[in-house]
Amino acid sequence: MKTRDEWEKAAAGLSFDGRAVINGKRIDTEKTSEDISPVTAKSLADVSECGQREVDQAVASSRAAFDNSWSRMSPGSRKGALHKLSELILSNADELALLDVLDMGKPISDATTIDIPGSAAILNFYAEAIDKVSGEIPVTDPGNVALVKRVPLGVVGAVVPWNYPLEMAIWKLGPALAAGNTVVLKPAEQSPLSSLRLAELALEAGLPEGTLNVVTGQGETTGAAVGLHPDIDVLTFTGSTQVGKYFMKYSGESNMKQVWLECGGKSPNLVFADTANLEEAAEFAARAIFFNQGEVCSANSRLLVEKSIAEQFTELVINQAKKIKLGNPLDPTTTMGPLVDRNQTGRVAEFISSGSDSSKLAHGGSRITIDGSDCYIEPTVFTDVPLQSSIANDEIFGPVLSILSFETEAEAISIANNSIYGLAASVWTSNLGRAHRVSDALHAGTVSVNTVDALGMNIPFGGFKQSGFGRDLSLHALDKFTGLKTTWIRYE
Ligand code: NAD
Fold first, then answer.
1. Are 84 and 207 in contact (CB under 8 A)?
2. Of all protein residues, whose CA lies closest to atom 14 belonging to ligand 1?
3. I need a surface site. Which of 200, 300, 338, 383 has the fewest CB within 10 A?
C-alpha cells in the first residue's frame, strides 16, 4: 500500500490534459474552463468547452464509426477490444484513481479498491455478454420463419455525474458498446479527466476512432447539445431528477430519441426493534450515508428507527460516525474526503443550517478547511426530524443523516414511501415474514434486507418514481441499447 507521500509524488508526476477527444484526436476549442480540485483548491487543467460545432463533429464521427466499423466488426473482435480496454484500465489503475480523487475528492483507498477494479470488471462482464445473448425464433405457421434479432440502435449519448466519474461512465459504455453502438460521452464538468483518459485507452485497446468520443463542457451548453442532437438515437443519463426531466424535454423537442434515466434518491433505512445485531446494523447505517462523502444516489439518508430502540440506536450510529477519518483523500487512512466542489459544499452547508432550525443537530455539522480547501463537511446526524422538513424530503447528496422514528410496521412503510423518489431502501429485522412483507410494500428499485445498498454487476440497478427508469448493470442493461428487429420469411 502506498503512503500519502507516495501518492502525492505520483499525483505531482501526472500531466493533465483537459482537451476533448473527437474522432481519435485531442481537439482545441475556442473556450475552456478551469477544472478546480477540491483536494488542492487549485486548477488541474483547462478543459474544453465543447459547443454545438464540437458536438456535431463528435456525433458525425460516432455515426461514421457505427456505420463503417464498430457495428460491423465480428463479435469476437469487439469482445477482444473491450477485454483489452479492461486490462488497460487495470494497468493504468493508479493514474485513473488519482484523476478521480483529484477531480472530486473521494478517498484514494476507495478509488483503488472499488472504482477502478469495479470499472474493469464491469467492462469484462459486458465483453463476455457479446456472444452470449441471442435473438429468438418464435412459433409461426408452417412455411414461415420469424427471426427476432437484437440490433444495436446507433449512436448513444451518455451524460454522467461526478460522484463515480469513471465507474458511472463504464456503467453506460459497457452495455452500449457491447451491443454494437458507438458513444458520445459527456462527463460532468467537475470530473472530466478520467473519461478523457479512458478515450485514449480505448484507442490503444483497438476501438476504432469515433467509437468513443468524449465531449466536455457545462451541462446547459454541451449537455443540452447532446440531449437535443437530431442524430443521437439513445440518450442514457445519470444525474439529478431535475436534469433528467430536461432530457425528456430535449427528446420531445428533437428526434424523439429514447431516453433512459438514473436520477436522484432519498433512500430510507428501516430498523426494527427485532434486529438481531444492532451494533452491526448501526455500522451499516453509518456506512450507508457517509460512504463517498454521502455523494451516492442510493445513500440511505433517512434512517427510520422503531421508537423503543431509537435512543440506543442513535447513539450507536453516532459512535460509528465518530470513527470516520475526515481528511486529505490522498492519505490512504482517510475514510472521508472533501465534497466535489465549493458549490456543492455550500449547498450541503445550507441544508445543515435549515436542518438546525427544524431538528436537533446530534453530531457534526461543521464545514472545515484542510490543506487549503474548504470543501470538507463533518459527518452530520440530525434527530427529531419533522416529516415535512426539507432534510427529511430533499436529496442533500452529502454526509447528512436524518433520523426519524416510527411505532408500527405500517407507519414505517408509510413514512418510507412518502417520497418522490424510489431508488433504494434497506430493512433490518430478524422476522422473515416482516422482511418479505416490508420489502414488497416499499417502492424502491432495490430493497436490501439486513444489509445496505446491495449491488452486483449482474443484478439490475435503477429506480421507480422520480428516481428514473431503465436499469443499469446486469444483462437487462442491454435492453436499453438494442432494438428488437423482426425478419419474417414466408418460404412456402
Ligand atoms: P446533474 O444532474 O447536475 O449533472 C449530471 C450531468 O448532467 C452532468 O454531466 C451535467 O453536466 C449534465 N447537465 C447538467 N445540467 C444540464 C442541462 N441543463 N442539460 C443537459 N445536461 C445537463 O447531477 P450531478 O450533480 O452531477 O450528480 C448528482 C446527482 O446525480 C444526484 O441527484 C444523484 O442522485 C444523481 N445520481 C444518480 C445515480 C443513479 O444511478 N440513480 C447515480 C449517481 C448519481
1. no
2. 219
3. 200
Instruction: Report the nearest-CA residue for atom 30 of ligand 1.
Output: 239
Q: How far apart are CA 69 and CA 61, in angstroms?
A: 11
- Separation of alpha carbons 172 and 121, rounded Å: 14
The parts of the chain modelled with pLDDT lower than 70 are none
Assess whether the region 4-263 and the region 268-455 belong to the same CATH fold.
no
Q: What does the block give as the cell for 1?
A: 500500500
What pTM value is reported for the model? 0.98
Domain 4-263: state its class.
alpha beta
Nearest CA to ligand 1 atom 13: 219
CATH number of 268-455: 3.40.309.10
Of 229, 163, 166, nearest to 197 by C-alpha is 166
Cα-to-centroid distance, 338 and ligand 1 (Å): 19
Domain boundaries defined on the chain: 4-263, 268-455
Rounded to whole angstroms, the Cα distance separating 437 from 191 reads: 41
Distance 241 CA to ligand 1 centre (A): 8
Q: In what order do the strands lie in the sheet with 380-383?
A: 360-363, 380-383, 400-406, 302-306, 268-271, 424-428, 446-449
Q: What angle do CA 116, 117, 118 make, to 5 degrees?
A: 90
Ligand 1 atom with the smallest distance to the CA of 164 is 43
Residue 101's closest CA among 197, 169, 188, 193? 193
227 lines ligand 1 (CB under 6 A): yes
The rounded Å distance from CA 481 to ligand 1 centre is 20
Which of helix, strand or coil describes residue 35? strand
Burial category of 13 from C-beta neighbours within 10 Å (exposed 0-12, middle 13-18, buried 19 and up): exposed
